[in-house]
Design goal:
The protein is mostly helical. Helices cover 47% and strands 0% of the residues. It folds into two domains: 81 residues, Cytochrome Bc1 Complex, Chain D, domain 2 (Orthogonal Bundle), CATH 1.10.760.10; 87 residues, Cytochrome c-like domain (Cytochrome Bc1 Complex, Chain D, domain 2, Orthogonal Bundle), CATH 1.10.760.
Length: 211
């Protein structure tokens, strides 16, 4: 029996309901099913968590646990987070924030990518839209409670901007509601494609005009 016990993986638990289960164990046995073990989800239906801002992850996991994020996807996949304690949430966020986000191959029109880059770094003064980089960092790395965007799935970014534009489901992101309303569908697509293509790269202003 002792030998069998020694062979058992240390990061597994038979009861994720146990508040003593570590956050890392929770990531490997629950979160990994959708977000992958290192937080680099392969499906655009689920956001990449690798390299995400720790405070942002804490805030979002807390809101999901407390059912403050109420859209259909959140309810279907994430309301089970009610089992997580404050300590477990902190551990989960810490684990994913320390992972490295991986680049996804992306085929997109160069003019569209350059336009998305300009929107991100410069905004649209004529619409009163500030540069995304003002809050999200010039490399899209995220700042404190502001999420990392660089390297995120384009389809996920588009869905989140649509949530901001059409619902009140993100109380912590109230400033984004105004920004999202001012962006056209082409703007949103260009931003999302650019951000997916830019994990960990230094972003420089492009010269292309709107396609």
């Amino acid at each position: 029996m002792a030998a069998l016990g020694a062979c058992a993986p240390l990061d597994r638990s038979r009861s994720l309901e146990n508040p003593d289960v570590s956050g890392k164990t929770f990531t490997q046995q629950a979160c990994a099913m959708c977000h992958q073990a290192d937080g680099n989800s392969t499906s655009p239906n689920f956001p990449k968590l690798a390299g995400q801002s720790k405070q942002y992850l804490i805030d979002q996991l807390t809101d999901l646990r407390d059912h403050k994020r109420k859209n259909e996807t959140s309810a279907a996949f994430m309301w089970g987070m009610a089992r997580l304690s404050e300590s477990q949430i902190e551990q989960v966020a810490d684990f994913y924030s320390k992972q490295t986000i991986t680049a996804e191959p992306l085929l997109a029109d160069p003019d569209t990518l350059n336009y998305g880059k300009k929107l991100f770094l410069e905004g649209q003064a004529d619409k009163g839209v500030p540069a995304c980089a003002t809050c999200h960092g010039r490399e899209g790395e995220g700042l404190g409670p502001i999420p990392r965007l660089a390297g995120q799935h384009a389809n996920y970014i588009i869905r989140q901007l649509t949530v901001f534009k059409t619902t009140d489901d993100r109380p912590r992101g109230a400033p984004m509601k105004y920004v999202a309303h001012s962006l056209s569908e082409d703007d949103v697509k260009a931003l999302a494609l650019f951000l997916q293509s830019s994990p960990g790269k230094t972003l420089q202003v492009g010269t292309a005009s709107k396609p």
